[in-house]
Known about the structure:
Layout: H1 2-14, H2 18-81, H3 88-101, E1 105-112, E2 117-123, E3 128-130, H4 143-149, E4 157-158, E5 162-163, E6 165-166, E7 169-170, E8 176-186, E9 189-199, H5 201-209, E10 216-220, E11 225-227, H6 247-250, H7 252-260, E12 263-268, E13 271-278, E14 300-306, H8 308-326, H9 333-359, H10 369-386, E15 389-398, H11 400-407, H12 409-426, E16 432-437, E17 440-448, H13 451-466, E18 469-470, E19 473-474, E20 476-484, H14 493-509, E21 515-516, H15 525-532
Helix pairs in contact: 2-8, 8-9, 11-12, 12-13
Amino acid sequence: MRARLALRRAAELAGSAPLRMALATIGFAGFVVAYQGHLEEASLAELDRDAGVLVARASLLLEHQVTADATNACILRSLIEGSEAPTYPALAHDLLQIASIQPAYDQIRFLDTEGHERVRVNAGRDRAWLVPEAQLQDKSGRSYMRDLAALARDQLYFSRLDLNVEHGQVELPYKPVLRTGVDLAWGGERQGYLVINHLMAPTLERIRGLSGRLRVQLVDQSGYWILAETPELEFGQLVEGRSEARMSAWVPDAWVAMQRNQEGSSTTREGRFVFRRFQAAIRSGCAATSRESGSFDPGWWLVVRVHPQQVMQVRQEALEAAVSLWAPIYLAVLLVLAMLSRHRSIKLRYQQRLEAMVRQDALTGLATRTVLEAALQSELQRSRRHHRRFGLLYLDLDGFKAINDGFGHAAGDQILRHVAAILHAEIRETDVATRLGGDEFLVLLSELPERSALHRAAERILGRVQGLDWEGLPVGASIGLALWPDDLPHGGASELVHVADQYMYQAKARGKNQICGRLQALPTPAEEVASSA
């Protein structure tokens, strides 16, 4: 509308000079086309940056998952091979112990070289149990057994991320799993393989929860969706009736671009696709686990789709901005400057929104992981310099899934906001609280005099969280505690977060809705010097 009014005014000013009007119109059209292209490119670059932030955050979640699984598998193998050739009962006992403290592991198995299960431990949310010998299965026909057989000594294996299959049938309800495998040898010969099934549903939900106006998709190396915009497209390689639900078939142009480049973007009729190939930088105790030494790569693609409607909106906005800028050329330079000011304000709003996304969680208003990591490093340096303590509370809600599933995401979001308000109220201005994703929170408490202060803070928070409910459904929390330097005298910030995370998992394993951490405090470096004097 504004552009049409400007053109009408320009025609009125032209009066009896049609030639000049025609020349001005041609010049105006040229400026519009050129400037539209500039604005469109800048706006699409903004969308690409938004998509890139989502892809990077999702990649960090996967990197953490794969690295932890690699480390655990290699440590387990070292423990098993470090003793004399174990009997099946002894091996079963060791695997049961591991499964009981790792609730994310659905199965831990020892399979012989022929693919027969010899020891299998299944795990649920609250317990782990040994599968009777009569129920052990023959997995020789599974693709991952062929891959395991091809392993060289000390190589690490990751399967494709797919659904769990029992007795030749996809298990219901669907269980997305990632299998990590290493070979086991004693007596100088390979005896079989240790295979860990990690339940990936929580990680996938965390990635799904990163999405805002853009959504992250996860695609395997064959083009099948693991995470899609609609669940009906996921795991087409295993779910009956979905065999054609592949990105490689639905959007072949984008898929071809993905095969040519490790990361980038591709614009097709179906939208603009921003992508990055996930390659885990595996660090573990195994002798050889890098891709250069031959280990198996999960081979996933992280993809963000900008819908055609969003691309068209960008183009429409760019056209309107260009027309609005150059149409008033007959009226005054002042209007041109005003439109440039509008353009700058649009860019400023984009920058402010991006900065807010980096520093503040959009749902809860808590600090983001970026802010927390910076605060952790700063607090670690200050505590080392002044011989002070600081602590971490790793909090995971109990009962949240029932509310989220029963009453919808709006109810779940409201619970998350209530918990964020509790954290805001219970911590000091010098402390930092962040939402890691989903229903997990991490709190940094600075300058703590002793361990009891950390426990008191956790008890206050737990007491208030336990007071929450939704239509009669209770809310609780499992809280893991870590105190520096007592729990990790020589470690860094990320290692201390891992300690708190492990204590949180122990709290869940012990029945949930409780606090878990070390009870005995160690002296600070300053106290040690004083006592020795």
